[in-house]
Design a protein that fits this description.
Blueprint lengths: L8 E5 L5 H14 L10 H9 L6 E7 L10 E13 L4 E11 L8 H15 L5 E3 L6 H9 L19
Parallel strand pairs: 4-5
Antiparallel strand pairs: 1-2, 2-3, 3-4
Helix pairs in contact: 1-2
């Protein structure tokens, strides 16, 4: 999987051996959002839940350099984390983009859009007909980026969350 023949980037599914790299890129994302120290995820969680017997998510890595990650000369410069979802209203599967990260030197090069297109392609592999994601209202650059890709605020939905599932 590549973004295109003219791109300096190669986008590939992450492997279990690259789980530490996925974890490190997620830490970079958290740092860029000012969330340093607020995240409880560990590298072992990435291994278990991304690459275990029943994976909860997939990760695609963007590489710049030789052989798309197969060479020491290649550098991981982007990441998208996604998973399957289903809309009972649409009666169709979708793809949920949980995280998108582009390293500072690669920003503004089109890599973010290439990673999103790779997520769309992965979703189409399992029959997805739509993509959902959440973006902070406090991040106008991210809001504008997603709007430029055709995303819109989804009606009156509010994301709600509860920690713990007992009782």
């Amino acid at each position: 999987m590549t973004s295109n023949d003219h791109s300096p980037y190669r986008i590939q599914p992450a492997t279990v051996q690259q789980a530490p790299l996925v974890h490190a890129l997620l830490q970079q994302l958290e740092n860029s959002l000012g969330k340093t120290g607020q995240i409880s995820r560990r590298e072992s969680d990435v291994v278990t839940f991304g690459f275990g017997t029943d994976p909860c998510f997939e990760a695609l890595l963007a590489w710049q350099g030789v052989d798309g990650g197969e060479s020491a000369a290649a550098e991981a410069v982007g990441l998208v984390v996604l998973f399957r979802e289903f809309s009972t209203w649409r009666g169709r599967p979708g793809v949920y983009v949980q995280d998108l990260f582009v390293a500072r030197p690669a920003r503004g090069t089109g890599l973010g859009k290439a990673l999103m297109r790779a997520a769309f392609a992965r979703g189409r592999d399992w029959g997805a007909t739509y993509c959902r994601l959440a973006v902070s209202r406090d991040n106008p650059a991210a809001v504008a980026f997603y709007q430029s890709m055709g995303f819109a605020v989804a009606g009156d939905d509010h994301i709600m969350m509860r920690d713990g599932l007992a009782g």
